[in-house]
From TrEMBL:
<dbReference type="InterPro" id="IPR036291">
    <property type="entry name" value="NAD(P)-bd_dom_sf"/>
</dbReference>
<comment type="pathway">
    <text>Porphyrin-containing compound metabolism; siroheme biosynthesis; sirohydrochlorin from precorrin-2: step 1/1.</text>
</comment>
<dbReference type="Pfam" id="PF00590">
    <property type="entry name" value="TP_methylase"/>
</dbReference>
<keyword id="KW-0949">S-adenosyl-L-methionine</keyword>
<dbReference type="InterPro" id="IPR000878">
    <property type="entry name" value="4pyrrol_Mease"/>
</dbReference>
<keyword id="KW-0489">Methyltransferase</keyword>
<dbReference type="InterPro" id="IPR035996">
    <property type="entry name" value="4pyrrol_Methylase_sf"/>
</dbReference>
<keyword id="KW-0808">Transferase</keyword>
<dbReference type="GO" id="GO:0043115">
    <property type="term" value="F:precorrin-2 dehydrogenase activity"/>
</dbReference>
<dbReference type="GO" id="GO:0051266">
    <property type="term" value="F:sirohydrochlorin ferrochelatase activity"/>
</dbReference>
<dbReference type="GO" id="GO:0009236">
    <property type="term" value="P:cobalamin biosynthetic process"/>
</dbReference>
<dbReference type="InterPro" id="IPR014776">
    <property type="entry name" value="4pyrrole_Mease_sub2"/>
</dbReference>
<keyword id="KW-0169">Cobalamin biosynthesis</keyword>
<keyword id="KW-0511">Multifunctional enzyme</keyword>
<dbReference type="InterPro" id="IPR014777">
    <property type="entry name" value="4pyrrole_Mease_sub1"/>
</dbReference>
<keyword id="KW-0520">NAD</keyword>
<protein>
    <submittedName>
        <fullName>Uroporphyrinogen-III C-methyltransferase</fullName>
        <ecNumber>2.1.1.107</ecNumber>
    </submittedName>
</protein>
């Protein structure tokens, strides 16, 4: 992780003096920014411009018509040098440093003790955005987005919380019960009322919630984390991750998604990574039941969609047998991510009207899996866990009567930064198992609908075969 050179903190200024030096619009901008706080503003400018005069008056600032002198720093807790004159600003910074008053020099991050953030003000809630001076325009751009996404009334909700804090501490003893109360408060009917401006109603509803029986039962969510790209996670999954006390995850789930949970949530890896202990399905079910019985809220995080080759069936059965309430949160399954990457339609009018989710692993026996028949009937087949058995998949489908020239796309690490798209035909598919360069999870798509796939930057599935064909 890259480290910050500055530590973001909120500096107390209410009732204290903040000094701003400068005559022009840079100083005026600081006056406007600081007037969002309860600081006492002292503005020093020998010849203040019209903009500064207006802003200083609006902010109720003390205006000193003098050139800057060190005594202007007296009693100040922060200082801003905004004269737009380098030598003057440098002098102010030195004087401030001598007086041990932290100083900010406009547009000179190297001379600053602190950096001013772009600010979204929903007092008492504040969002401060900083780029350590690297890209102020980016910070402002982000501020506009955050401004638009935070309700103007959000401050009321924060005020209500402040108001309730002492009562909550008295009524709800434990950390867990308290945390759940706050989570419910900010997401439910209380929030709705507070945001609508009904402070009394919000408060009454909050008191009602506090008095209700505490919910000590555990809960399990089986959550699909999607194929890997972090922004293919659903909003619901993201929200529920914030609620989990425990996150039980597979190794295919990206670490960024696991990191999205609360910082204090316990993470349990039941990953299937080579050379590491791999929890058996029975052990995973035991962990879920044990943790839920302890009253904890568990997110069982799986790659893709939990209901597709995710062993969700076993886990739901174990939870149901133990009487543990649970819910499923769907995710983008690998087949959809692969189709998107290869720009290959999975169904196509007049060509393919059904879709099969298959695994390569039922090909071990000599009997043809029934999906081979569906493929013959024109279904597009999405093969999960098919890399090592790619040869057998191709062989059995051809045996069943599918043309060796049927289009195939194999997508490794679909949707991730290191994704690779390989295209070819059923004839080339066995080469996939032999390729040493393909080591990530692979989704194989087979079917005539793929012939319609748009041109994408793909490599040949079987490089050898491609070369031979080209030579012939
Ligand atoms: N529940 C998951 C599938 C789990 S089985 C889902 O819905 O996607 C594991 C198999 O999924 C892998 O062997 C691979 O075939 C496929 N897979 C998962 N993530 C993938 C990805 N990013 N790219 C390609 N295939 C992937």
């Amino acid at each position: 992780m890259a480290r910050l050179t500055s530590f973001p903190a909120f500096h107390k200024v209410a009732g204290r003096i903040v000094l701003i030096v400068g005559p022009g619009s840079a100083a005026a901008a600081k006056v406007r920014l600081l007037s969002e706080t309860e600081a006492r503003l002292r503005v020093v400018a020998e010849a203040p411009g019209a903009e500064l005069l207006a802003d200083a008056e609006r902010a109720g600032a003390e205006l000193i018509h003098e050139p800057f002198a060190p005594q202007h720093l007296e009693g100040a807790v922060l200082a801003f040098a905004a004269t737009e004159d380098e030598a003057a600003d440098r002098g102010i910074a030195e004087a401030a440093r001598a007086a041990r008053v932290p100083v900010n020099v406009v547009d000179r991050p190297d001379l600053c003790d602190f950096i001013t953030p772009a600010l979204v003000n929903r007092a008492p809630l504040a969002v401060a955005i900083g780029t350590e001076g690297a890209a102020p325009v980016l910070a402002r751009h982000l501020r506009a987005k955050i401004e638009a996404s935070l309700a103007p009334e959000l401050g009321r909700l924060a005020s209500l919380a402040e108001n309730l804090r002492a009562t909550v501490a008295r009524v709800l003893p434990g950390g867990e019960a308290r945390r759940r109360f706050w989570a419910a408060l900010f997401d439910g009917p209380v929030a709705a009322r507070a945001l609508a401006g009904d402070a009394a109603g919000a408060r009454a509803e909050a008191i009602r919630m506090m008095a209700a029986e505490p919910d000590v039962a555990g809960f399990v969510w089986l959550v699909g984390a999607g194929p890997g790209a972090i922004d293919l996670l659903t909003l619901r999954a993201q929200r529920i991750l914030q609620e989990a006390d425990v996150i039980v995850h597979d190794s295919l789930v990206p670490s960024e998604v696991i990191a999205m949970g609360r910082r204090d949530a316990e993470r349990i890896s039941v990953g299937k990574r080579k050379g590491r202990h791999e929890a058996t399905q029975a052990e995973i079910c035991d962990i879920l039941v044990r943790e839920a019985r302890a009253g904890r809220r568990i997110v069982r995080l799986k790659s893709g969609d939990p209901m597709v080759f995710g062993r969700a069936g076993e886990e739901m059965a174990a939870l149901a047998a133990a009487g543990i309430p649970h819910e499923i949160v769907p995710g983008v399954t690998a087949a959809f991510a692969a189709a998107a990457s290869a720009k290959a339609p999975l169904t196509l009018r007049g060509v393919s009207s059904s879709l099969v989710f298959a695994t390569g692993h039922d090909l071990d026996g000599r009997t043809l899996p029934d999906w081979a028949g569906l493929a013959l009937g024109g279904a597009t087949v999405a093969v999960y866990m098919g890399r090592s058995v790619a040869g057998a998949v191709a062989e059995r489908l051809v045996e069943a009567g599918l043309s060796p020239s049927t289009p195939v796309a194999a997508v490794e690490n679909a949707s991730r930064a290191d994704e690779t798209i390989l295209t070819g035909t059923l004839r080339d598919l066995p080469a996939l198992a032999e390729r040493g360069d393909v080591t990530g999870p692979v989704l194989i798509l087979i079917g005539r609908a793929l012939a319609e796939s748009e041109h994408v930057a793909a490599s040949p599935l079987a490089p050898e075969a491609a070369r031979n064909t080209a030579a012939a």
